[in-house]
Amino acid sequence: MSSSYPERTGLRGAVSRTLAVLATTAVPLGGAFAADTYWQPQAEARVENNDNFNLIPGGSPDSDVYGYIADLQALIGIATPRSDTSLRPRIRIQEYPDRDDIEKVESFFDLLSLYKWERAQLRTTGRYSRQDSYNVDTVGGEFDPLDPDAPVDSDTGRVLTGETRTRVLILPEFTFNATERTQLGLAADYQAVRYDSDGVSTQVDFDYYGGNGFVGWSLNPRSDVKVGAFVSTYEAQDDSVTTDAYGGSIGYEYRWSEIAGVAVEMFYEQDDATRTLPVPSEDNTSGWGGNVSAYGQGEVSSWRVSAGRSYIPTGSGGKAQSDQFRLQYGRDITQRVRFTGAARYESRTGFTALTQADDRDFARADLALRWMMSTTWFLEGGYAYIWEDRESASGDAVNNRLFVGVGYKGLDRQRR
Questions:
Q1: pTM here?
Q2: Are 308 and 319 in contact (CB under 8 A)?
Q3: In angstroms, rounded to a whole number, what is the distance separating the alpha carbons of residues 28 and 123?
Q4: Closest C-alpha to 274, from 231, 244, 245
């Protein structure tokens, strides 16, 4: 097929197609004129110091790094009688005077949209991010307040500096209420990931496609069971490897109340990888995985925990097994002072000998105190312990990070 217009290729075309889909989802037809909107701005400026920024075993004088960070974002909501959409644009500006290889501006955009019919609903999650690869693979265990069920967005496990990663993700899910207690559903997963380091990348660009169908039963008003089957394809953009996967899953969720519950999921997956570079080969991997998560909220405290095994696409040139544990706890010490702690541990193993070069164990713990100087302005300080043990390194490495900052957060759900 030919055209008189230039063809969009690569990530630019993927972004254009994704934004077009998100635009049609964000403002449902028939409800835009009755929309109720709100917005919540947030800004923070902080100073931090790292005693081993590069996570070098034994440390290095060049790894004692300090930096200045500004984080700007806004939560925008659009609600109609049939829909509820949340948009969150965000920019992170970072300056490390001793490091010229850190991306100075990172950008993010998140979308969550729900549209309901009488017996069906369409839920769409869309995410865009462009950030330094170092921040991608040293992420902590905090749960996203906008989407707590979202997995940690880590990647290869190879901590790099001087390289950026751009990621587009779209996850639509359609469910139909066949009966009062039975749901039928279809879901899709599309990811486009690209790397860049002044035109030269050490990672492998890839596209990832997935789809699954499921049946859900409401056992009672507090518990549900879901059974499904899924397929996926991982395609490296350099044509070095393609991995096709399929499997089945079963899940159970129980809710004690609107603010406390537990969910358990198990799955079995078969992955068939066909590699053309550096030499033709085939690899087959199969195994069990799953996840258990729980959450609760009291008058002055809240907590959330998850643990499990997943098979994830990576920039190492294939998929990897990721075993993770995450925990977050928050408590109001006084009416103005709140403590937040979060932790994450991950053990990663590649499927093939080439991807296993990035195998590692990683852990991070964050502790922070926030003092509300007023209803919107706050002071914050904290500490992060970051640990890594790489398969290819001579030993483990530790980075201690201290920070202090000041910020502004608008009042929740300001509607107009």
A1: 0.86
A2: no
A3: 12
A4: 244
Average pLDDT (212-239) is 96
Query: In this predicted structure, what is the pLDDT of residue 380?
Result: 98
Angle CA 366–371–374, to nearest 5:
145
Q: Which residues contact 109 (CB under 8 A, 6 or more apart)?
A: 87, 88, 89, 90, 126, 127, 128, 129
Q: Which two tokens stand for residue 147?
A: 């989407």
Confidence of residue 201 (pLDDT cuts 50, 70, 90): low
108 versus 133: which is more confidently predicted?
A: 108
Helix (H, G, I), strand (E, B) or coil at 323: strand
Token readout for 77 is 């909501």
| Residue owning tokens 């309901």 | 116
Could you tell me the CA-to-CA distances from 271 to 14, 233, 236, 320 in Å, in that order? 25, 9, 15, 10
Grouping H, G, I as helix, E, B as strand and the rest as coil, residue 17 is: helix
What beta strand segments (E) does 36-163 contain? Answer: 36-50, 65-79, 83-95, 105-116, 120-132
Distance CA(93)–CA(103), nearest Å, equals 9
In sequence order, what are the beta bridge partners of 320? 312, 350
